[in-house]
Design goal:
Blueprint (H helix, E strand, L loop, with lengths): L1 H19 L17 E3 L4 E2 L1 H4 L4 E7 L4 H5 L1 H13 L2 E7 L11 H11 L4 E4 L4 H6 L3 E2 L1 E5 L5 E5 L15 H10 L14 E2 L5
Parallel strand pairs: 3-4, 4-5
Antiparallel strand pairs: 1-2, 1-5, 3-7, 6-9, 7-8
């Protein structure tokens, strides 16, 4: 009897804990927190809805110092430029709240964006609220939404984030091409590999 009661209590607690956490964002889901305003490096506050282009929105969780970000600089710039040229809004998100004093501050974001010649939004995610809503865990990690604000792809930029010379499948690029052609991406999710987002807990 005691074992049964203990099991029931643990089950209830586990279920309660699970319900408090964020639900993983799956293909077909709407843009999370679309109207919440976030501070961009330009000094303006923008929402994901206002950043969205006529053909959709690309959200990438990013950072300034992650080795995987450094290895993906050229690829990231190329993919974001392609998106903008095809009327897909681009927002890079810095959710590294626990590292603001260690190279992830707004000033450091501005400096990094200038160095990388960013021509798109780069927002600061206070308390990692947006990362929590997206259930994002790594940098870089991408989320592509179509013109109807529905998720069509999430995950890595390609199949070799650690080595650009070993890329065989350009996952995000393929997803964008298929979306722009009016097709559902053949691959709509992949595992992202990178640095953990530094949340303050």
């Amino acid at each position: 009897m005691l074992k049964s009661a203990l099991y029931l209590t643990c089950t209830v607690l586990f279920t309660t804990f699970q319900s408090i956490g964020e639900t993983p964002l799956e293909p077909g889901a709407a843009i999370p927190k679309p109207e919440t305003r976030w501070l961009d490096i330009s000094g303006k506050e923008i929402s994901l809805n206002t950043a969205k282009g006529g053909n959709g929105l690309l959200v990438i969780f990013a950072g300034n110092r992650c080795p995987y970000m450094l290895r993906n600089q050229e690829r990231l710039h190329r993919i974001c430029t392609f998106a903008r040229k095809n009327n897909i809004g681009v927002v890079l998100v810095n959710s590294n709240e626990a590292s603001r004093a260690e190279g992830e501050s707004l000033t450091a974001m501005k400096d990094y964006a200038a160095e990388q010649q960013y021509a798109w939004y780069y927002i600061i995610d206070k308390n990692a609220a947006l990362a929590d809503a997206f259930d994002a865990s790594h940098t870089p990690e991408s989320y592509l939404f179509d013109k109807n604000s529905r998720l069509v792809y999430k995950g890595a930029l390609d199949d070799s984030p650690g080595n650009a010379n070993a890329v065989k499948t350009q996952l995000l690029q393929n997803a964008m091409n298929e979306m722009l052609a009016g097709k559902a991406p053949a691959i709509n999710s992949s595992n992202s590999l990178g640095c953990n987002i530094k949340r303050r807990r």
